[in-house]
Amino acid sequence: MVETPTSSPSNWWRNHHHNRRWTTFFSTQKTLFTALCLGLFLTVFYWQRDFTGGFLVFRFDFPSRQFPKLRPFAFNLTDFGAVGDGVTLNTAAFERAVMKISKLGKKGGGQLNVPPGNWLTAPFNLTSHMTLFLAEGAVILGIDNEKYWPLMPPLPSYGYGREHPGPRYGSLIHGQNLKDVVITGHNGTINGQGQTWWKKYRQKLLNHTRGPLVQIMWSSDILISNITLRDSPFWTLHPYDCKNVTITNLTILAPISEAPNTDGIDPDSCEDMVIEDCYISVGDDGVAIKSGWDQYGIAYGRPSKNILIRNVVVRSKVSAGISIGSEMSGGVSNVTIENLHVWDSRRAVRIKTAPGRGGYVRDIKYQNLTFDNVRVGIVIKTDYNEHPDEHYDPKAVPILEDISYTSIHGEGVRVPVRIQGSEEIFVSNVTFRDMSVGITYVKKHIFQCAFVEGRVIGTVFPAPCENLDLYDERGNLIRRSVSQNVSDIDYSF
Ligand SMILES: *[C@@H]1O[C@H](CO)[C@@H](O)[C@H](O)[C@H]1NC(C)=O
Ligand SMILES: *[C@@H]1O[C@H](CO)[C@@H](O)[C@H](O)[C@H]1NC(C)=O
Ligand SMILES: *[C@@H]1O[C@H](CO)[C@@H](O)[C@H](O)[C@H]1NC(C)=O
Ligand SMILES: *[C@@H]1O[C@H](CO)[C@@H](O)[C@H](O)[C@H]1NC(C)=O
Ligand SMILES: *[C@@H]1O[C@H](CO)[C@@H](O)[C@H](O)[C@H]1NC(C)=O
Ligand SMILES: *[C@@H]1O[C@H](CO)[C@@H](O)[C@H](O)[C@H]1NC(C)=O
Ligand SMILES: *[C@@H]1O[C@H](CO)[C@@H](O)[C@H](O)[C@H]1NC(C)=O
Ligand SMILES: *[C@@H]1O[C@H](CO)[C@@H](O)[C@H](O)[C@H]1NC(C)=O
Ligand SMILES: *[C@@H]1O[C@H](CO)[C@@H](O)[C@H](O)[C@H]1NC(C)=O
Ligand SMILES: *[C@@H]1O[C@H](CO)[C@@H](O)[C@H](O)[C@H]1NC(C)=O
Ligand SMILES: *[C@@H]1O[C@H](CO)[C@@H](O)[C@H](O)[C@H]1NC(C)=O
User: Fold this and answer.
1) Which pLDDT score is estimated for 14?
2) How far is the CA of 207 from the centre of ligand 5 (A)?
3) Within the chain, which residue ranges are assigned CATH 2.160.20.10?
4) Whose CA is nearest to atom 6 of ligand 9?
5) Catalytic residue positions?
6) Would you say the CB of residue 206 lies under 6 angstroms from ligand 5?
7) Fold of 1-18+46-284
8) Which of 39, 185, 260, 426 sits most deeply, having the most CB atoms within 10 A of its CB?
9) Which ligand has the nearest atom to the CA of 275?
């Protein structure tokens, strides 16, 4: 399962390789004989494929794959004057295409096909009832000069640009108040060329918060699938206050270090959302579920809820595989995370918050998690004291409750569990069942707890902290904890 993003043994790579080889072959050997041989081969190939399905391991499509027709009207980006040379700026072409499609909503909408090539553009908006389809080898390249990036007001639930007060840069691909939007393809790429942005950020040359790669706000019925997102200036995919969002079969990549804030997916005040079959290797959290920041998030009051994350592989060298928070002031509830594989990461699954946030994190179910070489596996942290401004209310304390961890496995983990409640933010009703995590070295206090109430059912390895009640496999109480509040937290490893 473990693979580096650059050496992934994908079908795509093999297909591409074969295509290239055949193209070269065809253009250099122009004899009738060759053509006949090729014709014969293709006939046999298609015949075999039709009759035996998965007969050939290196299944490739030749000539290059056609665009499927997913809407009543389809357009080619080149129809609008775009040039895919990586140098020509195609913003106007994208805008013309979107304008055209925006008039087709009543007729079922339109599809914009992006052929192979490097399509440089400044940020542009999507429209409702639109499908953006990226061919294999199609790359939408974000221009890395901030002068081309429009500024927008801060998100209402953050009251702040996140890095700087005041306006923030919009996203490369943006949408507001939309319905029925699809971004998909044959694994084409949206590339934010974040390198310039990360460098300017580190050198403190930017006066506004960097823009996400794809940000869809106040929208519903969104599907994003079968593409690659890479090198975002800031968060990669940010659905904000959206409903019914499906994210499936994405590859999300950014350098694993020195690519600040390149979270993979940030569901923010969203409900009814699925994230599945994704591979994420980025410079910050793989997924971070949020719902606004301190007093602004409390006032906005829109939770993230009914979220399912499954069959996801994540690497986050500097942060966590899946996070909830730290901005969670609108509340987060009913989240299921299953069949998750976190490798080579600092933290695997984490809930982070602080006094001032308000809100709640409740009804969170983790199931079948595999940790492979992570420093701290399960984390709940209640002192993540980063605030938008001085005016937050320190008495607004979040509620953390009803959190379960079932079937947790792995190896190479230093600290399998660190649940750090506090006197103000007590962590209630935590359940562990079926856990066995291979640890890197044996030390006491590696299942660390403070101010937490809950239970361990059946056998759990390593031995749980004394804060939790013990039950046997059949659910009979063995020992009730009398020390829920003792602190076993040791940050030295
Ligand atoms: C899609 O492309 C990315 C980047 O080129 C690659 O890492 C990934 O394996 C490809 N995905 C599939 C399913 O072919
Ligand atoms: C799109 O336009 C380009 C350039 O005109 C052309 O090469 C390509 O075949 C077109 N693709 C489709 C699907 O029409
Ligand atoms: C894109 O959408 C935003 C928000 O609706 C709007 O402010 C901006 O003017 C739009 N940009 C263009 C080029 O239409
Ligand atoms: C995932 O995407 C790749 C590349 O586009 C495609 O070959 C594969 O069939 C997709 N898998 C699923 C389950 O949709
Ligand atoms: C940031 O602001 C300073 C002072 O107003 C200005 O000189 C500089 O050009 C600005 N930088 C950017 C990237 O806008
Ligand atoms: C959710 O969105 C999808 C399109 O992505 C649509 O087919 C489906 O009907 C929507 N579901 C609901 C309950 O609205
Ligand atoms: C993803 O791609 C595969 C292969 O092309 C296709 O069968 C599937 O329907 C696509 N899935 C979505 C959700 O777009
Ligand atoms: C919880 O979320 C799931 C989707 O992950 C949904 O099917 C279920 O109805 C939600 N439960 C409640 C009580 O809303
Ligand atoms: C657990 O998750 C892994 C992927 O991390 C998957 O391969 C395995 O089938 C899952 N097990 C069950 C019982 O669902
Ligand atoms: C504790 O959490 C579990 C889910 O993990 C839930 O089923 C149960 O009702 C909760 N117990 C209480 C007393 O709220
Ligand atoms: C543990 O701390 C919580 C929250 O501060 C408090 O409500 C509770 O009474 C304490 N329990 C014990 C046994 O001291």
Assistant:
1) 39
2) 6
3) 1-18+46-284
4) 339
5) 284
6) yes
7) Pectate Lyase C-like (2.160.20)
8) 185
9) 8
Ligand having the closest approach to the CA of 363: 10
**Ligand 4 within 6 A of CB of 226:** yes
Cα(135) to centroid of ligand 4, in Å?
Answer: 13
Residue 59 has pLDDT above 70, yes or no: no
Q: What pLDDT, on a 0 to 100 scale, did the predictor assign at position 216?
A: 99
User: CA of 378: how far to CAs of 282, 388, 440, in Å?
Assistant: 19, 27, 15
> Which of 11, 67, 225 to mutate for ligand 7's pocket (most ligand atoms within 8 Å of CB)?
225
**Whole-prediction pTM:** 0.90
pLDDT at residue 308 tops 80: yes
**CA-closest residue to ligand 10 atom 6:** 402
Any ligand 4 atom below 6 A from CB of 440 = no
Please say whether the beta carbons of 138 and 121 come within 8 A. Answer: no
* Ligand 3 geometric centre to CA of 236 (Å): 19
